[in-house]
Prior knowledge:
Elements: H1 3-32, H2 35-55, E1 57-59, E2 65-67, H3 72-82, H4 84-98, H5 106-115, H6 126-138, H7 142-158, H8 163-178
Antiparallel strand pairs: 1-2
Helix pairs in contact: 3-4, 3-6, 4-6, 4-7, 5-6
Amino acid sequence: MNERKQFDLLIDIARLLKKYGPDAFENLAKDLKKAETVEKLGALLQVSADASRKAGLLKGKKGASTRKKMSAENFLRELESTQPAKALILATFYDDLTAKNALPSLGDITALAIDKGLEPMRAKSRDKAIPLLLKDLANRPIENIRLIVEEVTVRAEKGDRSLQGWAGVILNDKQRNKS
Length: 179
């Protein structure tokens, strides 16, 4: 724990002292001298920390808990450090997505996910679906990513975003898989 966090914790403890009074602190101090209480407190703190990490909760600026969001940009930066080739392909694809040159609607992203056997999109908006799509693609082999991105980019360049256009993508993919 760094010094700033320790100082902030001491401030919070001082606020609690003011709120609950010295008697409550004195009683707690007595209880903490018992090994059984210390074990229970340690277990409680560990479970709380694990649950917080699992839920991805962070303390926001105003003290309210907010879901931790990893932006697409941050995700791509992290991916670049471990898998630069995938990161390059996905960064270019991300640029096309944000410019709406590819998959301009949430429906288009959802259709791609279904057609390519990706994780089902449960996002309520296109902006929230983009990082999910990128993360799912990053878990696939690089050649698979290339094929999907190229097909989407080709469709976007042709301007064929209709159901018939997607049917062509699916059929071409199935034919390629049979070969």
